[in-house]
Amino acid sequence: MSLPRKARSRTLAMFAMYRGLPAPIYALFLATVVNGVGIFVFPFLTLFLTERLGWSAARAGGFMFLSSLAYVPGTFIGGRLADRLGRRKVMLGAQLLAGLVFLPCGFLGASPAVPWLVLAHLFFDGVTDPARTAMQTDLTRPENRQAAFSLNYLGHNLGFACGPLIAGFLFRSASAWLFWGNALAIGAAVAIVAAFVPETKPSAAELEASRGAGGAEAAHEGGLLSALAARPFLVAFALITTFYGFVYAQHRFALPLQTRELFGDSGATLFGGLMTLNAVLVILLATPVVALTRNKPPVFVVAAAGFLFAAGFGMIGLARTPFLLYLSTFVWTLGEIVNATSDGAYVANHTPMSHRGRFQSVLPVIAGAGFACSSPVVGRIVEGSGLASVWPLLGLVAALAAAGVAALGLVEAAAARRARAAAAAAPGREAAAEPLAAGAGPGGPEARQ
Known about the structure:
This protein has 20 helices and no strands. By secondary structure, the protein is mostly helical. The chain has one domain (20-440): Growth Hormone, Chain: A. Helix 2 runs antiparallel to helix 10 (176-196), helix 13 (232-248) runs parallel beside helix 16 (298-314) and helix 19 (390-425) runs antiparallel to helix 20 (430-438). 54% of the residues are buried.
């Protein structure tokens, strides 16, 4: 076989993991692509606040923190509603409202009311996210979940590859369309989900059947706190990876400030190019990364991602040319891909099917706390010490967090071995002990193909 044919065969083999997924997963993928194309506002929100509204870096950082807080009550409400009312109606209603609040922003220009409407958008976006992720988990099993989650991640970046380039042009010449275009894309995505994705919430019979089957995904009898207490490794994982969020958040806050400091007015265009490189790399590398890591323990894959974050963000402080900024973006994007394609699968495989909406509201808040506080903290550092001091700090934080995730993986593996030994000594307990240690178990109504 010739070398080109071998390469083609390997490429087709990598994409084969996306075959045979439930049909609604492909509809969610398409909706994610459409939504990603229209993500105009948030990549340029820091520049909008500092250039158009005249805010300082510290004040803009404080707003980014406030925007994360606005997301929190929305996600708590959304998770609870998704488990009670169903995933589909919560997702459709909240996402539609998130798009509608952007429409008046285009008419208001540099009005101080715009940031408040952005906060309202984030609240409704918070309501949407737990329902969307619970829906994806309902539709999949542990065996195909990483492929399904990575397909959704790929879809986001297929759209996002175009979004920042369009938004960079709009920011300079037609800023009202940052908001209107974003709203139109959200509306189109809602229409796709409404047409092709059914309700996926597990029925009472499915919840009861899962309790008899056992496993980490079996329905839990108690409330949210008792379900979390029964999964200490999952909680520890969320707490440690919050520091990943602290570091990663700076691609939206400190990085555009860095490009502006180094290259002046052309910095916004360069930043748009960096974000497009990020999205293109995800498109090109997400599938090969999943193919290489799908048989590896997700926790150790996530640890490797942290070390890539450390290298990629740490080196930005040394970058004085566009080439080095593009190189650093390549490294931290690789870390993003490795993390994003394994993090969600790890969480989903440890989540009881009765609490998927609530877990997907609480755990992202825990893991996202670092992301939320990152911008105000870094904004103060920028004001006091300048941008140069930010990047070594981010590299150190990411490296320490990566070491913590790796240590957690070793402890979890030891616990799994002890559970297997206990199950071997008492065969009647095998069904309960083994899945809880390994994170296996029934996925819910994913058999609805």
